[in-house]
Design brief:
The chain is mainly α and 176 residues long. The protein is built from 5 helices and 4 strands. Among the domains are: 4-76, no CATH class; 107-147, no CATH class. Helices cover 51% and strands 6% of the residues. The strands form 2 sheets. It has a two-stranded antiparallel sheet. It has a two-stranded antiparallel ribbon with strand order 3-4. Helix 2 runs antiparallel to helix 3 (60-68).
Amino acid sequence: MLAVFGIDSDGLSLAVNLLILFLVVIWLALVYWTNADARRRIADPMLVGCATAASLFPFVGTIVYMIVRPPEYLDDVRERDLEIQAAEARLHEQDFQLCPHCDYPTQREFLRCPSCLNRLKDPCVNCHRPLDPSWPICPFCEAEVPGAAPPPPRRRRRRREEDELGETAAFDIHES
């Protein structure tokens, strides 16, 4: 039998060989864990490879990686970014909007931007509430907005199809 560290005792040599095998298995498991953890935390494949290569130095590389690794998983970063975008969208849906001229945050009822003083909306001639330029009437007091183009006439598609079907049915009845 092979004597490791000059040990001639079979029992002690077996124990040392099993300890070395255990340390090698732990080291290989740490290399695998470092690679898997780096792929979940680091977006750059080159840095993932460097972290894995560093863990090939037994135990020290993995310890150094654990010290310098990013604190968050990539999925958590993406989820946080989505939550921030959703919160910003909710803010924009409520009472806040941005001035189209200077991107200053304004409220929906502002007639002018407090930063650049550009006109955002026109007031209603009757109730003086802010009106969107595309509105033909004031939704608050139902006064017509002077100079606004009337909306194009809309017909429901289903109604028109029913009328066409009714005309063809009536035509078929008269033909027979």
